[in-house]
Structures are given as C-alpha cells and as structure tokens.
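Researcher: Here's a chain I'd like modeled. Treat it as a single chain, no partners, no ligands.
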Amino acid sequence: MTAKRGAKDAGRSTYHHGDLRAALVDAALVLLAETRRWDFSLREVARRAGVSHNAPYAHFADKRDLLAAVATAGYETLRARMLAAQAEARDAGEALDAIGVAYLRFGTENSAHYRLMFGPTLLASDEATPAEVIEAAAASRGVLSDVVRRGAEDGIFAIAPNDPAAITAAVLAAWSLVHGLTLLYIDGLATLETPLGIEQLAEKVASIFMHGLARQE
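Model: Modeled as a single isolated chain. Structure tokens:
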C-alpha cells in the first residue's frame, strides 16, 4: 500500500494542482519532438507526465482531442514568435521579412509539430477540424494579414488597401511562399539546391517575392 501511495504522490508532484491539462500537452510535445511521430498513445503521454493512465480523460475525450491541443499550442507559439519578430521593424516591408524568418525558424526547428499543425491528421480528416485549432490557426495567420494590410495602406505594397480580394491574394501568396519553403527545407530538398542556411535563404527568397521576377521598365 505504501509503495502504491508513493507512486501516486510522485506522479502528482510533476504538475501543479489544476495544471494537469498543460502537463499532458507538454508531455505530448516532448514525445512528438523525441519520436518525430504522433502515433503515441494516451497511456504513453500519461506515463511521461507522471500521472495515472486514466488521467488524460479528465481533459481530453480521446487522443485526437489531445493532438488538437498540441496543434493549438503550436499555433500560439508561432503567433507569439511572429509578433516578437516584427516588433522592431521600421515598416511593413521589414515586418514581412521578419515574420517570414520567424515562421521558417519555427517550422524547421519543430518539424514534426509543424507537420501535425498543417497536415491531414487534424485539417483534412473525415472528422471536423476542432474549433480551437481553427481559431488558433486564424490568429497566427492574422499576423501576416495585418502586415500585408498595413503595407497596402502605407503604400509600400502595390495592393489596393480597399480591395479585400487583393489583400487575400497577397496574404495567400506570401503564406504559400513561406510554407512551401519551410516544407522544402524540412524535407531536405532546399539544401539539395543551395548550401545557404535557412536565414540567408529566407532573405533571398523574400527579396525575390518583394521585387518580383519580371524586369522593371
């Protein structure tokens, strides 16, 4: 009896009262980083968090529910990093460069997490995408939207500030570029083409995006 009580107490000591949900998400993030997969079980997550195997069900209906929380945490971190990166930018052009580099850093440093956030497990499965994931993804994308809109209003970008369709197209173009480059780098395809590091590559790609490929008359 004493041994069992001691094991339970040891498990409880790994998180503060009321922080079980956060502890489980953190444990899942550690497993994700270590294994680069998300086929671990709720039991494994509970074991890593130091709690009973039934503990996760106090906060998550199933594993997909936990993965949604993990993805949401990723979007929140991504948003925070982009906001911090653009804080000292002098204008929208510099801000766009800064958030692009922050995005690439996050994706390439956390490749498995990134794939979970943007992959079919949560976004293109037979089940509806969890509302918390949709909201967190929209909030992180909103950082890019705000920068593009500000650049249009300031006349830095050649986009009509009162044309929602043009703003949306510009946001999608910028996002497609950085998302595609992130995946190319994660998969090792970008490094087959150039020895440049991620930041140098990001700067060159961003410059091409800002100025275009066509010769200016």
